[in-house]
Write a structure and sequence with these properties.
heterodimer, A: alpha+beta, Translation Initiation Factor IF3, three-stranded antiparallel beta sheet, 3 helices, B: mainly alpha, three-stranded mixed beta sheet, 10 helices, elongated
Chain lengths: 163, 270
């Protein structure tokens, strides 16, 4: 192999590959994110008016029929582009704006899953809804650097008897 | 109490700024910070050069050897040849304050290095590839050229600069290594210019010693011809100008000075 070729190859490995990867990650990640957001908006519209509340208890005059624990959990991974930008952000500090949509998607998706299950099972509302996050997915073996966001939503689905 | 259904709001928790705008701002901003830090550190190295003159450097490093150096036996015949070549070449630079020392690093890699305090280290791998004394003399002359321009201190500074940058970056996520690569490449650009200057001085030395510059760039011609036996080519090329450019520069320089490119060369067979 010609030394010039080796050099160009080296240059490509050092600069071309990461840039290409970032570009691909951006376009694919962006497409998937928009698709997910559209899907979330559509389903939220369908569930419009279905009560999901954080009340711990219902007014004493309300008659609860059935009650059940409903959970919805989601893991959304971040893409290479987001990670790179967040890494740069980590050098100087500030809002990690590329991670914000991930958290938003995970939260809304988890709540939607709770609501959809409850509605499908014939419950009238979900009360005492709580949100939890955990960290299962790690980008590195040493446990540093979050590779995704995990969200668990749970609540008590109830049927309300007419009184 | 009345339950009023509301739509979830889309625009509260997610920043409206386009991700590419953020990316652009960050890349440009951090790039500028990097450049500023680089310039500052380069300035710092120059300041060290100014405040640590040769005498001081020799005093500090006169008997220093790198800790990881694997030397060959003291009665190695190659060492004697090397010492002779160094001695003969250094006579043509009488103003030099250095007393040159030369050591062989017993490694298969292909390199010659200049260290503070007048220490030249040549790898055994390089000696295996060298075919004539004149080739060897040019390589050593090149290293002496580094001392003339005090590049060895700059090289040290470069190592420190990169060390600092990499430490700053390894504490954050992987993406920022791109910045470090850019810094590395910039500094390598500097280093290549230093290599060219050292080449010119080396050529001058061997012309004065042998009366001609035959075989000076024979070594690089063999690299250029793509000899398969050159093992560590990639790492060698990353800090040195491409051999083709080097040969062209050397030929041009020899022509300009009217130095003969033919003459007797003494073979080396070890």
């Amino acid at each position: 192999m010609e030394p010039g070729t080796i050099q160009n190859f080296n240059l490509f490995l050092n600069f071309g590959m990461p840039i290409l990867l970032i570009a691909f990650a951006y376009f694919i990640g962006n497409y998937l994110e928009n698709r997910h957001f559209n899907n979330i908006r559509k389903r939220e519209k369908e569930l419009h008016g279905y009560p999901i509340t954080t009340f711990e208890s219902l007014p004493a005059s309300w008659q609860v029929g059935k009650a059940s624990l409903i959970t919805g959990n989601v893991v959304v991974s971040l893409d290479y582009f987001k990670r790179i930008i967040a890494g740069l952000r980590g050098l100087i500090g500030g809002r990690v704006k590329t991670y914000e949509p991930l958290l938003d998607r995970a939260r809304r998706e988890a709540v939607l899953r709770v609501a959809e299950q409850a509605k499908k099972a014939g419950y009238d509302a979900v009360i005492n809804v709580r949100l939890e996050t955990s960290r299962l997915a790690n980008s590195r073996g040493d446990g540093k650097g979050t590779a995704g966001v995990e969200m668990l939503a749970f609540g008590t689905a109830v049927t309300l008897d007419k009184h | 109490m009345k339950f009023i259904p509301r739509n979830a709001r889309d625009d509260v928790n997610v920043s409206r700024e386009h991700p590419l705008v953020e990316a652009g701002t960050l890349v440009v901003g951090i790039g500028l910070i990097f450049v500023a830090v680089l310039i500052f550190l380069i300035f710092l190295v120059e300041a060290v050069l100014y405040f640590v003159p040769e005498e001081k450097e020799i005093e500090m490093f006169g008997s220093w050897l790198p800790g990881d150096l694997v030397t060959v036996a003291h009665d190695d015949p190659r060492l004697e040849t090397l010492e002779q070549v160094v001695f003969r070449l250094s006579r043509h630079w009488p103003e030099s304050k250095y007393t040159f020392r030369i050591e062989i690093d017993d490694s298969p890699q292909l390199n010659a290095l200049a260290f503070p305090g007048g220490l030249i280290i040549v790898t055994a791998g390089l000696l295996d590839e060298v075919e004539s004394e004149n080739e060897l003399a040019f390589i050593i002359g090149h290293e002496i050229g580094h001392f003339k321009n005090r590049d060895h201190i700059r090289g040290l500074g470069r190592g420190v600069v990169l060390g600092i940058l990499f430490t700053a970056i390894s504490s954050s996520d992987g993406g920022a290594t791109l910045g470090a690569s850019i810094a590395d490449l910039t500094l390598r650009g500097f280093s290549r210019r230093q290599e060219s200057a050292a080449d010119q001085f080396g050529l001058e030395l061997i012309h004065q010693e042998y009366g001609h510059v035959a075989d000076a760039w024979r070594f690089f011609e063999r690299i250029e011809e793509g000899d398969e036996s050159f093992i560590d080519l990639v790492s060698y090329l990353s800090t040195h100008p491409p051999p083709k450019n080097r040969i062209e520069d050397l030929i041009e320089s020899a022509g300009k000075n009217g130095w003969s490119v033919t003459g007797d060369v003494s073979r080396l067979d070890w």
